[in-house]
Amino acid sequence: MNPTACILVIGNEILSGRTQDVNVQYIARRLTEIGISLREVRIIPDIRPVIVSVVTEARAAYDHVFTTGGIGPTHDDITSSCVAEAFGVPWVPHPETFALLEKHFAPGEFNAARQRMATLPQGATPIRNPVSIAPGFTMGNVHVMAGVPRIMRAMFEEIAPTLRHGTPVTSRSWHAFGLYEGALAAKLENIQHAHPDIDIGSYPFHDRDGHGGVALVCKGLDADEVTQVADKIAAMIREMGFTPLAGEPAHKA
Amino acid sequence: MNPTACILVIGNEILSGRTQDVNVQYIARRLTEIGISLREVRIIPDIRPVIVSVVTEARAAYDHVFTTGGIGPTHDDITSSCVAEAFGVPWVPHPETFALLEKHFAPGEFNAARQRMATLPQGATPIRNPVSIAPGFTMGNVHVMAGVPRIMRAMFEEIAPTLRHGTPVTSRSWHAFGLYEGALAAKLENIQHAHPDIDIGSYPFHDRDGHGGVALVCKGLDADEVTQVADKIAAMIREMGFTPLAGEPAHKA
């Protein structure tokens, strides 16, 4: 079985609707590619007891926990000290990170707020930040990353090679214009029942010209079985008098 | 205190990275506008025991639970029957919805799969769907909506006037180019400590030309206090030798 994962998005700015999260989709895609099964995402506020309790639950329930957000220098950046609390370890200056940041800032600019970014849970391993220097960190099975998307992506790619990879998911999809979910549901369910290990998803779409149809996606760890299922789906679409087009429609919403 | 809410995004397509969720930001903004406090978002897979247990937890913890996704006619659309299970009630044909859909489809096309969309937890109230007819529903404090964004938005707007509204959140923001979080953190923290009921957020940004700075957002239920805090933040920015620009930067990421 593939390792499991959970993402914790930490930040009031997502819950207020100020900011559109884009990190979840990036991490989700990359985990699918490297064979780690993303089981849950939780978006939670910058409130200490909430972060501590959700990190504690998640690290017990999943092989990997990825957090985004809350690791800058300001008062609302509390993820790092909350992770220390969740692990029951002190939150202490990390000497190498301290030296790295001290060198990065002009003399006199490495103030108390910036020194917080060199303060990590005792025993944490920094995650290199090639964009803006201040690192993320891994503590146990919890990987703490920035919320700014380009920094988060750089941090994720730093740690991705170090994670235990499972079997990558194989995915095949078809779409058909003019075919609707309600018409194919029974036939599709028969295919799903014959292949319980393959995850078959059905998604209606409308393109920008108002033409609609359905996209059918099959995913699984056994590439041969995914191909078999994809062939059955294409045959089903043809039998219903429609044309199966490979892949996803250009406009998915 | 304002009523609280949680959003449950139900769907493998979000967890696999296939689909970028855009419903959370819409609902989050609208709840902020009408004075309902969004406390948490959970994105969970199309797995029956997971949905049942998360709905059960969430409906006990929050005043309102909004779900998106999983109410179509295909085998992976299990939200409705899971909500019935979470409430311990039977999942039964809803006569008015049955009649509505029967009338909508051409003779012979209202098949078993489509009849599932007229099957609701016993005691549920349908939420009108002006886009594609098949309704969502409210069961207790759980509002079950479609995953397709334009249908979800229409359903949300159907129920928004019926929800108990709290005090709308007042928000004021400033941004400044060339000013960085690490430089203002201590001063900002002093303002935050003086106004614990106001939520002050600090968000670095870079515009498309590579110019960066910080956006400072203050929110709260007391509009006068929000104005006071915003004035203090503007004064702080000026004292540091930078120019406070009203509102958010054009490009936020």
From TrEMBL, chains A, B:
Gene3D superfamilies: MoaB/Mog-like domain. InterPro entries: CinA, FLAD1_M, MoaB/Mog-like_dom_sf, MoaB/Mog_dom. This is Molybdopterin-binding protein. Residues 6-166 form the MoaB/Mog domain. The lineage of its organism: Bacteria, Pseudomonadati, Pseudomonadota, Alphaproteobacteria, Acetobacterales. It comes from Gluconacetobacter entanii.
